Amino acid sequence: MQSLLLEEEWLFNLVQCDVWKRKVARFSNEVIVIPINVYYDEVEPNAALGPHCEPLGCTYVQIAVLPPEWNSRLENIFLALLFNAHDRSLYGNYRAFKPLLQELKLLELEGIEIVTKEKGPVRVHIVVAWILGDNKGLNGICGFMEGFTAIHFCRICHVTKADSEQMFEEDVNLLRTHEDYLLDITKNDPKQTGIKEKCIFNKLPSFETPSDICVDEFHDLSEGVAHYSMVAILKHFHRLNDMFIPTLNSRLYALDLGIDNDNRPPGISTDRLLTKSKLKMTGAEMYMIVRIFGVLVYDMIPDGDPFYDLYLLLHDIMSIIRAKSLPRDAGVILSVAVKEHNQLYVHLTKETLKPKHHFLLHYKSLLSKMGPFSGVSSIRFEAKHRMLKLTAESCMSRVNLPKTVAIKQQLGFCFRCVANASIRQPLSAGPCQTVNLSELDCFPSFSRSLPCDIVESPIQTVVNWVNFKGTKYQPQQILLTDVDDDGLFQFGKIQLILLYDEKPLFICSDFDTLGYFSEVRGYEVTPLDSWFAIGHGKLLDYHPLCLYPMPTGETVVVLRTLL
Ligand SMILES: [Zn+2]
Predict the structure, then answer these.
(1) 396: CA distance to ligand 1 center in Å?
(2) Cβ distance 312 to 320 under 8 Å?
(3) Coil, helix or strand for 443?
(4) CA 391 / ligand 1 centre spacing (Å)
(5) Which of 29, 130, 180, 204 is deepest in the core (most CB within 10 A)?
(6) Cα dihedral 397/402/407/410 (nearest 10)
(7) pLDDT exceeds cutoff 70 at 365
(8) Which domain of life is it from (predicted)?
(9) Within its chain, how far is the Cα of 330 from the centroid?
């Protein structure tokens, strides 16, 4: 946390941002203040269309300052409150969340005392940094008008629905502030203000509405704007070429996606696309197809097609919004890309902008207030629902289901405490074999990059796979290893994985990066004969990548996000 505060040029976490600085200023320097995020969503544990489809209202908390690789573990998302979601509509937000609010208030005001080796007894205050959720959930629990049909649907600004349909830039004069939010509440006029009731989280001393309520990139972008744009793009290319979608489907089916295979987008149904204007994809699959769409179809795109420009702008927006760290001025690039994307969308489709397009306008100013958006995405929280659903589905009784599910979760948490399990995931590795590295043909080329003790004793244990910090590495994956003097990224393909000093050490074959292939937003590479060794800590991006052969013969690597 201290090292994050010293970083000036890059944003990694919300503790570097304005909202957290305002909250932490209330405390003395003697105490430790830890941020947590609170997430709310409703989940249906029974068959969605059956007679017993009462949803559960789930509230989770997450320690906001953990590194992303620990935070993405479902075990590190903790269940805080569980109730029948209908009770919230029946008894109101305050009664539903009262037990949680009391706990959060106590943790913030009084905190807990812990004993550290360096400082002895220290008081730790735990403070809510952000309220997370999807748009409907956030508006519901924070007292704003639910649903996008309301005149004032936006909880960040005062724009009307009609104005937002032709709005391409954020209007700072319309932004809601805490002061005019309090004024709006006194008016008691939901139609004109968009506020139904005072946000219950304002009962927490450091909480301010609306600045401390988050946005959700997963629903706004992956399941929202990306879907609208890709539907328009696919329809356009289908009009130009009947074989476009069948060819895209067959290439998608044949492509080796490596580590992303679980998120392989399904084949696109032309009938569904044309009749319902819908793609049957999850947010993760949509993210995948936006990343690789250019690689798959670039040879079928006519020169200068504006719909392809729309796709490239979408790709740029997604790579910024999904980034785990960003330069402080990345918001400017993002706002330009969003403006151009939205203008082109309106121009090409002749449709008006939708509420999710409007939310993207606010992302530029929110970046300096809340840090990278991937850290507050609801994608992992939605995955956590599965653990609760498994309990609910395996239990035949429907008498007080929230209690059954909560007890099961508590028992799991108790087991974790008794077992003294860490929030970190221990390193695990697959079958191993002994290899004499000096007998490999490439040994002279990579021996110089090996640690001295491995060169002196080259008979080493090599593993088939290793899971380190929640990421699985296997041979044939591509790693981002370096950047050259011209600013081009350098890549390597994993050939062997060694365990050295309790961390993976990768022996990779080298690539020559020929250049940036801007039309597919990827780097064109060609394999070299030389090999090199690199430790996990020296990688530029810890996430493995994949090589994509293009139909036109080039081989490219597409980065996951902006770096
Ligand atoms: Zn707005």
Answers:
(1) 45
(2) no
(3) helix
(4) 39
(5) 130
(6) 150
(7) yes
(8) Eukaryota
(9) 17
